[in-house]
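Database export, one record per block. Field names are fixed; values are copied verbatim from the stored entry.
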Amino acid sequence: MTKMRIIRALWRRASLLDRAATLLILFYLAAKVAEAFGWQPSSGLLSAVLGLLPLFFFVSAVFLLVRSRHWIATRVLWRLRNRLILAYIFVGLVPVILLLALGGILFYLGDVEVAAHLLHDDFHTKMEQVSAASDRALALARVIATQKTTLDALDRAEPVLAITKSAEQLLPGLSITFSPATPTMPVPTSATGPAELVERQGSLAIEAASVGQLPDGRWVKADARLPVTPQLLDHLSPELGPLFLGSGTLHVGTNGQATVGSRPRVTRLPTTRPGSAAKRQQVAIATRTRTLPPPANPFDIAIAGITTFDVVNIAHPGAKPKAEPPLFVAFSFRSSAMEKRIQNSLGEFQWDYLVVLIVVAGLFVVLFLLASIVGFVLARTITRTVAQLDEGTRHVKAGDFSHRISIQRRDQLGALAESFNSMTSSIESLLDEQRQRQRLENELTIAREVQSQLFPRSLPALPGLDLGAVCRAARVVSGDYYDCLQLDSHRVAVAIADISGKGISAALLMASLNSALRNLVVSDGFAGADPSEPGAPASGDPTHASRLQSTAALAASLNRYLLLNTSDDRYATFFFAVYDTVTRRLDYTNAGHLPPFFINGNRIEKLDRGGPVLGLLDGCVYEQATIQVEPGSLLVAYSDGITEPEDSYGEEFGPDRLAAEILRRRNQRPEQLCLDILEAVKTWCAPAEPFDDQTILVARMD
């Protein structure tokens, strides 16, 4: 049902010419099937139409082939198996067919040559018999002739008539006549003239002449003439079928019999104008009783062939003989007859040759079958692997990377299948890694959002103090940290830190430092000194608030906290300062951080007093430094991501260039100054991207 729907769909989409060509092909095939069952056309018009059908079939087939080339290329030849089959047909089968065709042509030419040779031998035998009859007639004339014997009497002499009578079976129609001759008459060197095929005004005969001298001194010529008739042709080469000898237009029928016109005949052509010489007259002689024997086997086909006989034309009595174009002889025969004749010529060795031929033919068949089997197996291995690769690509296209191709042979196709398996395995691993990375990126995004909550949402705003800070992470999360805490109505604490390492581990340590810092600064547990030290005040001491200015104690507490809660290879640089807007006093402690710049007028001071980094050494003592702030002073704290970026020549931005940029932009608001400094650093290292977190904090104290 599906095939019928496809056929109907193709028929609906076909054009008018496509349908006409298809109907012509179907009509031709139907006519051939009908002819195979014995049907014959009943009218001449139908016969003429059937005669044109092969031409229409060829044109229609070529037209449909050209029209369907795209469908053949996209549907039929899309599969590799079909392409290999077509390649095998062109590479393997077509040469075999051509060789078989060449062998058939050679077989045909060989049989035709043997048949023509037999026909020529028999015809030359007839000519020799006619020549021998003229020689015997001349010899008898010498014996029986007397001085009073006339030439007419010699023609009717009993011994001469006995010659024609004895040859009646082999040479039907043989006649012998005598005529006067002269000693100067040209004769062959053998003293007898050879027989020739002579055409005299449309009649064809084998003629031979012998010239000699009688005992009474007269010279005579004995002429033997054998007319070429259907009876004579019937006696030539019994292995052959019907024969035809003629000079007209040749028509060879399907039964191998050749004719001129409707039946064998002799036609004389009129002259072109009065007084002109006659043209050569057409001659057509065919056998009447000879037929082809039935085939000895299914392969015993009828074969038709053509050969030629030389002929001499004598236009009228007394005219000189004139060589004419040869007459053609059409003949037909069965291939078995020629094979039998050849085998007979081989004598006792015919069966030996036949056995050798059969063995060689069988060997060729076996080799051909083996080659076909090997070609089929090799093609099967190729198409199977390609089909598996095609199936594998379909699985990959559908998103299934777990499909694997079975490797059965260690060859190039097997290596290709192994590469495909390796590719799909790598893609599957990459997809797993991509999924894991996607999960990690999602987690980092969440971590970034969480980390962003750790930075101050808004900076404290006190009279005489303007703050600005920016932190740009080199990765998703940052290991740098800054914070601004308002302690009371006139005091603000600022902090900046740089955690060792990068990424999520640094971000986690940064979060831990943020939590510890805020707990120590804000909670009641922070008293400005180590509670375990002798003389440290209790948490309820009235002096608790005033001791919040002990930045060194805060650094020491954070150092012990990191030592207890981090590994040995983790540490942090830290800068912490407290500014009192009333007393205009700045207390700070620098725990291994890059020294911030304190700009008082045109003087730049580096705030480097404090102690080592946090979380690396136990029992460290930190120092607190105090600066009296003048109006218009500027505090700039930064991380190493600001000073360490390099340009294309490997030169760092550096603290000196940073100080120059700060002095050049010192009158800007802190927030804008932070952004301009980051832009200057980006311009310095362009087009490279920053490889470290960048943090800058600016406080203007008016």
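Remark 1: Confidence is low (pLDDT under 50) at residues 187-192, 249-278, 524-548.
Remark 2: The first helix runs from residue 2 to 13.
End of record.
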